[in-house]
Each structure stands twice: as structure tokens, then as C-alpha cells.
Design brief:
The complex is a heterotrimer of chains A (298), B (255) and C (310). With 298 residues, chain A is mostly helical. Chain A has one domain. Helices cover 73% and strands 0% of the residues of chain A. Chain A contains 15 helices and no strands. With 255 residues, chain B is mainly alpha-helical. In chain B, 77% of the residues lie in helices and 0% in strands. By secondary structure, chain C is α/β, with parallel strands linked by helices. In chain C, helix 2 crosses helix 3 and helix 3 crosses helix 4. The chains are: A mainly alpha (298), B mainly alpha (255), C alpha/beta (310). At the B-C interface, helix 1, helix 4 and helix 9 of B face helix 2 of C.
Chain lengths: 298, 255, 310
């Protein structure tokens, strides 16, 4: 009987031209969408956008001059004039962005890499022609897609209604850049969150621990930003400890909102906010790649 | 009783060996990080006041519930999740004994974490403000560690109960320890008396001499609970939670 | 007459709408009893009910006369249980895991260590005592599970799929161990979904299907049932028509047909003889590949379910 050495032979035949991260991204999106709560959070956010869109349209049908009427009413009441401008869109992040990030991290992100580690699925992925970078790209793309759907989606709907009911060209030109600005701002934020969440889930197999770490990052650092601002004799950049403030500053920078002019001083500087976003993303990327490479033969 | 001892050792080893303590230690040192930043960038806050008015309230408000959740929720819930609890429940001992052992092991595992969380900032503050007497720092460290150790008995027992009773223990623990605990306990009004956090503040007030907070996390109470009352509430909660754990262990299926 | 080890009266368990076990009434005395059934038939549910890990939805279970409910513990001195799930104390060494189990049984640490070593010796794992469970193969962990079940020399041994993941040598050793255990007047209940595993250690069986007791009795009766029904071999190769003619002439084939994809299906009541003939044909280069249906248990279920339906 002839014996042959049972050594691994690398596949050298033709590989499919389809990028390996594509099925991973689709699979992850499918998995996310199968989760009842992920669906609910995403749809709820879109419904909020639809609601505001419908309200603007209906108000515009009943009172076509509603913009000037609300402006006058606020003036009479001694309030700052209500105007739909870039500051208004920035204010919308309190509805469409801030409440979404933590729930989606908890519901969708908590198990992204951890479950693959627990079930040894990572080894199965890497035994196919999938590289760690391809795997990470697929997972990140899926998570970013969900975050963008739930955050940018409602923004875009409100903007559509605003444009459709724009009273004049001046208003149109003032808000024309909003979707592009918000798209890129939210893309940076989503990317940072997606990488950070995956970095945490690549460090532990436990979903409970991942979730606790997310809560610590969002809540503790959320509280710590203003506390540090107070404790350090009002050092503005201490606000960059708060992920939520970083989100706000990045959006404001892209929208071109001037905090100085609006009298809002308790915010990190754009440099600090972008520095945190880039720093968190790079460190997270390195953590994930280190974790994945340990499990990969590629 | 050997069952309690054996599971205590087992649980303690499981909670503390390897890198398992890294995350709780990181959480417990987060206020210290902020303290260091405050010391570095502020000229108006003396170190002792920062420790008293900022670090202790924040540790009670934030660190205690999260470290307890990190360390005590998995004590039994991970055995349930993996089906390993069946091995323990099919031993010829009443279920409360291994449950008690697992709880004690987890609690003992938390003590060094709390000690680190109170000693490290005290050392940093001591270096920043050398004129403060050493005995002041010792009293503060012992006081804070004591409050955390006693508080974690009740918080830990609640976590152990939730780990047995609920499949979504983390959500329930968050609601009970953070929302009904820290948040309700630090809000002004009658409601704070129904929160464990209020009684921890009572202990911190008596044992660490803390009367105010730089973070609005200490409620503006006119009447602090006495040490006796606080201890009764905390120990009472621990005993009730452990009874409930024992009862939940009999009613939950091992699947 | 020997003491009744297990008595189940109308024992039922539902998981929501899903029926895990329905109306099981059975008594088990000393000796080995095979608990046969495919996946999802209710074997593990029965094991969990016997050990008080889950509550019965209806009916009761008594072990050595004591009613079992969640929280029962005294009777566990007389029971050893190796569950179907993997050992999940992965960061522990084998000896530590066993010592924990022994201490939970009331031993002092020194006594627990002694007892654990004896149990490891019994399953042939003493040399691996210091190896962590997560560094062991599945077969090794199976043996550790059995060792923890044997710690207190139990009168009733409950083994849920004990041979899963074991190599042939370990299987044989484990089967010997089970036979030896029962020969001393003790009771062993061994759950499996593989007929020949159970057949190798006992002739008595309970057969579960969809949570119901489908059959109870001797395996020889099952074997007779199997032998009544022809076994099928599927052969691929060259000149299958000539092979078919040759097989028919040998008088071992009860029937044959050609499949769509060039496969010759041969039915026989005498599988060993057919295999001998096919081996000769294989050596002559006539056969490229061959498959024998090994779904004996499924066949029995089909027959029994069919009969009960009729």
C-alpha cells in the first residue's frame, strides 16, 4: 500500500472574482434583520423621520406660510426665532442619532465577532478564501449599513420634506448641502462605532461582557465629559471623552454650524472630536485585526 | 458545609484567574483616570476634596453597580447558559449550599477590585497633596472599601438572583442597580428611601465624612439614614435576595 | 425480587407547544437498560426529569421510592449521571473538576482527591488528571463525564449518549465498564440513538419516538424485526448487469433494481454473505464504490410506527 504525506496543499486554482466580504456582509445584514429588536429600532427611527416628513407636508398644506408664522410667534413670545436651518438639523441628532447608537450596539453589535468565536465559526470562515480584512470589511459594512439606515434615513426624509416645501431659493441653497454633510458625518460616526463595537466583541466571547462595556463606554464617558469640563476649570476638549459630544461636534462641523455664534461653549473642539473618532477607529481596527489574525492561517 | 467551601473556592478561582479581572479593574480605575485629568488640568480643586466630592460619589454611583454586574451576573448565569449547572444540581447537597458558595466566591473576588479602586486614587491624591496626613487617607480608603464591600453583598446577591431567575439578567440588573439604585437614590425626594443607593450614601456619609458631591450624584438630603438602619437594609436585602435565588433555582429548568 | 430503581407514572413534559415526553409509564429494575431513540425523541428530557433538573408537566418519577422534584438531593447519593451535554468547566483540570464534584457530594478535600483519582483510573484517564478539560478531545471529556458519574459508586447510573465522540478502543472500554458495573447488581440506563451501541451492552431496551414509548422489551425481538426486512446495498461500478446476474445466481439476493444514476441496488436477507460476494467482485475491479444502508434504527421506527398506525 502506498502512503502519501498528508500535508496541506494550498489551493492554486482559479478563485471566484466575487469579493469574499460580500457574502459576509449580506449574511450579517440578514442576521441583523432577523433580530426582532434590531428591526424595531431601525423601523422606529425611520417612522420618526416619516412622521416629521408627513407633519411638515400637512402643515404646509394647511398653512403655507407656517415658517414665517412660527418665526413671528417665537419672536412675540420672547423666544429665539424658530428657523429650519443647519442648527435645526443638528438638533435632530437628539432624535435620530443619539438614541440609536447604544441600542443598536447592544442589539446588533454585541455578538458580531463574539458569537463567531464562541461557535468556532471564525475558523470556518478562514478555511475559505476569506482574509481577516475581508471578514472585517463584510461585518463593518453590514453594521454601518444598519447604523446609516437608522440614523441617516430619517434625516434624509425630513430634508426631502423640507426641500419639497421650501418657500424660496434662499432656503433651498441654505440647506442643499445637508444630506451630503450628514451622510459623511454619520458615515464617520458609524464607522467609528462599528469598529469600536467589534473591537470589544473580539476581546471577549461573552455577550454579557460586551454589552456591559458598551454601556460603560456610552454612559460613563457620556457623564464624564461634562464632569471633567467642570473639574478641569472648563477645558472644552474634555468633552471629547463623551462619544455623544464627539458625534455632535462632527455633525456640526460638516453642517457648518458655528457653536461660538450660537453661544454653545460646552463642546469639544472639532480637532479633538475628529482626533477621538480617528483614534478610536484606528485602535479598534488594530485590536480586531490582531484578534482575527491569531485565528487565521491566511 | 464542605459544599459551600468547595463552591466558594471554585467560584473565586473562576472569577479571578487569568484575565478575568482586567475588565472590572479597568472599570474601577475609570474614575481615577478622570481624577488624574482633573488634577493635571485644574488649579482650583484640592486632591482631598476631589477624592471626597468626586471619586467616592462616582464610585458608589457608577463603579459599584457595573463592577458588581461584571463579576456577579455570570456567577450562575454562565453555568445555566452552558448547561453546566446540571452537574452541580445533581449532587447530594441542598441547592442553597452551592448557590451560597458561588455567591461568596464571586463576592470575595470583588474585594481586591474595590481595594484597587480606592487605594490607587488615594495614592495619586496623596502625592498631589502631600500636606494631607496619611491617617486621613487611610481612614478614607478603609471607609470607601468598607462601604463598597458591604454594598456589594446586596448588589451581588441581587445579581446572583437575577442570573438564576432571568434569561435577560443584564437588562434587569441594569434597571435595578442603575435606574432603581443609583439614579433613584441620588434624586431628591421621598423616592430615594426606596433605593439601596441612598443607604450606601448614608454609610459613606458616616464612615468617610462625605457630605457633598462635585457631580450632583449625592442627593441633597437633610436627614441621612443612620449606620444601623443602612446596615439593616443592606444585609436584609442580601438575605432576601439569596432566599429568592434559592427559590428561583428550584423553579427554573436546567435546559 | 430486586428493588425498583426507577418508576415513572404517566410522566409528561411539554416545552411550550412542543411535546418532550408524553405519558411515559415504566419501571426499571437492576441491570442495563438501553434507552433508544433518534434525536428529539425525548431521551435527554427523560434523563433530566430523572435527575430533577426539569419539572414534569404531568405525572411523577420515583427513584428508589423517593419522588424526584427540582430540589431533591438525598437520593443523588445513589445516582450517577453523565449528561449528554459537554463538560463545561473548561478552564478546570480534570482532577479539579472531579474533586469539586466529590466535595459537593460531602467529601473532605483529601478524600475527594483520592476518590477522584480512583474514578479517573476506572475510565483510564488517570494520566490525564492534570490536563485542562478544554485541552482534551471530546472522547476524553466523555470519559471524564463518566468518571464524575462513578465517583460515589452509584447504584443507578444514568448515561446520556456516553459513547459520542469516543474512538473504538475507548468505546470498547466504556462498554466493558458498563457491563461490569451492572453485573454487580446495579442499574444502568444508557441512552443512545445508535442501535448497535446499545445492542453491545444489553438486550433490554426502551424505545422512544416523538416523546412516546414506542416499544419496550428485548433487543433480540427488534433484531428479528430487522432481519425480516431485507437490507440494501447500493453499488457503482463497471458492467453492473453482469454483476447483477452473477449475484442472482448466488442466491443471496432477494431482489435488485437499477437506479437512475447507474447504481445497482441489491436487497438481501443475508448481508454478510452478500458482502463476501461483493468483496470478490470488488477485488476483480468490477466495483468502484458501495454503500450499505445503516439506518437500522430508522427502519425499526418506520416498521413500528407503521404497525402501530395499522
Amino acid at each position: 500500500m502506498a502512503f502519501r504525506a498528508a500535508e496541506y496543499e494550498r489551493y492554486s486554482g482559479k478563485r471566484t472574482s466575487r469579493p469574499s466580504w460580500l457574502p459576509i456582509a449580506f449574511g450579517t445584514i440578514q442576521r441583523g434583520w432577523q433580530s426582532k429588536w434590531v428591526r424595531r429600532v431601525s423601523v422606529l427611527s425611520l417612522i420618526l423621520g416619516f412622521g416629521m416628513m408627513a407633519m411638515m407636508y400637512m402643515v404646509n398644506q394647511v398653512v403655507p406660510e407656517w415658517r414665517s408664522v412660527t418665526e413671528q410667534a417665537a419672536k412675540h413670545a420672547g423666544q429665539p426665532a424658530f428657523k429650519i436651518d443647519t442648527s435645526y438639523y443638528l438638533m435632530l441628532i437628539h432624535f435620530f442619532v443619539r438614541p440609536i447608537l447604544l441600542p443598536l450596539a447592544l442589539l446588533f453589535g454585541y455578538d458580531l465577532i463574539a458569537s463567531d468565536m464562541r461557535t468556532n465559526a471564525l475558523e470556518a470562515y478562514f478555511s475559505r478564501p476569506v482574509t481577516p480584512l475581508g471578514y472585517l470589511t463584510g461585518r463593518t459594512l453590514a453594521f454601518v449599513s444598519f447604523l446609516m439606515l437608522a440614523t441617516f434615513g430619517p434625516f434624509f426624509l425630513v430634508w426631502l420634506a423640507d426641500i419639497a416645501t421650501a418657500p424660496n431659493d434662499e432656503h433651498f441653497s441654505a440647506i442643499a448641502h445637508v444630506p451630503v454633510a450628514m451622510f459623511f458625518a454619520l458615515l464617520i460616526i458609524s464607522l467609528m462605532i462599528a469598529l469600536m463595537v467589534q473591537a470589544v466583541t473580539s476581546l471577549t466571547k461573552s455577550a454579557t461582557w460586551s454589552n456591559l462595556v458598551f454601556v460603560v463606554i456610552f454612559l460613563f464617558f457620556g457623564i464624564m465629559g461634562p464632569v471633567l469640563y467642570d473639574l478641569t476649570d472648563h477645558q472644552q476638549d474634555m468633552m471629547a471623552f463623551s462619544i455623544l459630544n464627539v458625534t455632535k461636534v462632527i455633525c456640526a462641523t460638516f453642517l457648518g454650524v458655528d457653536f461660538e455664534a450660537s453661544g454653545e461653549h460646552i463642546n469639544a473642539s472639532p480637532g479633538a472630536a475628529f482626533g477621538v473618532a480617528i483614534g478610536v477607529s484606528v485602535v479598534s481596527f488594530l485590536i480586531i485585526m490582531r484578534g482575527l489574525r491569531k485565528r487565521s492561517l491566511v | 458545609m464542605s459544599a459551600i467551601y468547595a463552591t466558594t473556592i471554585f467560584s473565586l478561582r473562576r472569577r479571578t484567574l487569568g484575565l478575568r479581572l482586567l475588565a472590572p479593574i479597568a472599570v474601577v480605575l475609570l474614575p481615577t483616570l478622570v481624577l488624574v485629568l482633573a488634577l493635571a488640568f485644574s488649579t482650583t480643586n484640592p486632591a482631598l476634596e476631589l477624592y471626597r466630592q468626586y471619586l467616592v460619589p462616582l464610585t458608589l454611583y457608577f463603579v459599584l453597580p457595573f463592577v458588581t454586574m461584571f463579576m456577579m451576573l455570570p456567577v450562575l448565569s454562565e453555568l445555566y447558559d452552558r448547561g453546566a449547572i446540571g452537574y452541580i444540581y445533581t449532587r447530594p447537597v441542598p441547592r442553597w449550599q452551592p448557590l451560597m458558595g458561588m455567591f461568596l466566591g464571586g463576592w470575595l473576588g470583588m474585594l481586591p477590585v474595590f481595594l484597587i479602586g480606592s487605594i490607587v486614587p488615594a495614592v495619586i491624591c496623596g502625592l498631589a497633596e502631600p500636606e494631607v496626613r496619611m491617617s486621613t487617607w487611610f481612614n478614607l480608603v478603609f471607609g470607601v472599601t468598607g462601604v463598597l464591600a458591604i454594598a456589594s453583598l446586596a448588589y451581588g446577591a441581587i445579581c446572583v438572583f437575577l442570573g438564576v431567575w432571568s434569561k435577560r439578567a443584564i437588562i434587569h440588573a441594569f434597571v435595578i442597580l442603575v435606574i432603581l439604585g443609583s439614579v433613584l437614590g441620588s434624586l431628591p425626594g421621598e423616592g430615594q428611601q426606596y433605593s439601596l443607593h441612598y443607604y450606601l450614601i448614608g454609610l459613606a456619609h458616616e464612615w468617610c465624612g462625605i457630605t457633598d458631591s462635585a457631580t450632583d450624584l449625592f442627593p441633597p438630603v437633610t436627614e441621612m439614614p443612620s449606620v444601623f438602619k443602612s446596615l439593616m437594609v443592606i444585609f436584609g436585602t442580601t438575605i432576601v435576595a439569596m432566599f429568592m435565588t434559592s427559590s428561583a433555582a428550584k423553579s427554573r429548568d436546567v435546559l | 425480587m430486586s428493588e425498583i430503581a426507577i418508576r415513572c407514572d404517566n410522566l409528561s413534559r411539554w416545552y411550550g407547544e412542543v411535546q418532550g415526553l408524553a405519558g411515559l409509564t415504566v419501571t426499571i429494575e437492576s441491570g442495563i437498560v438501553g434507552l433508544l431513540g433518534p434525536n428529539g425523541s425525548g431521551k435527554s428530557t427523560l434523563m433530566r426529569l430523572l435527575t430533577g433538573q426539569i419539572k414534569a408537566s404531568r405525572g411523577s418519577v420515583h427513584i428508589y421510592g423517593q419522588k424526584i422534584t427540582p430540589g431533591t438531593y438525598e437520593v443523588f447519593r445513589r445516582i450517577g449521571h453523565a449528561p449528554g451535554e459537554d463538560v463545561h468547566f473548561e478552564s478546570d483540570r480534570a482532577i479539579d473538576f472531579l474533586c469539586l464534584m466529590a466535595t459537593l457530594g460531602g467529601d473532605r478535600p483529601a478524600k475527594a482527591k483520592d476518590r477522584s483519582e480512583k474514578a479517573l483510573q476506572r475510565v483510564g484517564m488517570l494520566k490525564k488528571a492534570s490536563v485542562k478539560l478544554n485541552a482534551m478531545s471530546k472522547g476524553m471529556r466523555q470519559r471524564i463525564k463518566i468518571a464524575q458519574a462513578l465517583l460515589f459508586e452509584p447504584e443507578l447510573l444514568l448515561l446520556d449518549e456516553p459513547l459520542n465522540g469516543m474512538d473504538p478502543v475507548s468505546r470498547r472500554q466504556t462498554m466493558d465498564l458498563v457491563r461490569d458495573w451492572a453485573s454487580q447488581g446495579r442499574t444502568v440506563v444508557m441512552a443512545s440513538h445508535v442501535l448497535h451501541e446499545v445492542e453491545a451492552v444489553t438486550d433490554r431496551m426502551l424505545m422512544l419516538h416523538h416523546g412516546r414509548l414506542l416499544a419496550e422489551g428485548r433487543l433480540t425481538e427488534i433484531r428479528d424485526l430487522i432481519d425480516m426486512k431485507p437490507r440494501r446495498a447500493s453499488v457503482r461500478g463497471e458492467d453492473l448487469r453482469a454483476l447483477a446476474a452473477e449475484m442472482l445466481s448466488q442466491d443471496v439476493v432477494a431482489g435488485l433494481d437499477f437506479g437512475n444514476d447507474g447504481v445497482l441496488h441489491l436487497d438481501t436477507h443475508d448481508l454478510p454473505s452478500l458482502l463476501d460476494h461483493l468483496q470478490e467482485a470488488g477485488l476483480a475491479g468490477q466495483i468502484h464504490s458501495m454503500e450499505i444502508d445503516d439506518q437500522e434504527l430508522e427502519m425499526v421506527y418506520d416498521m413500528l410506527v407503521g404497525e402501530s398506525a395499522r
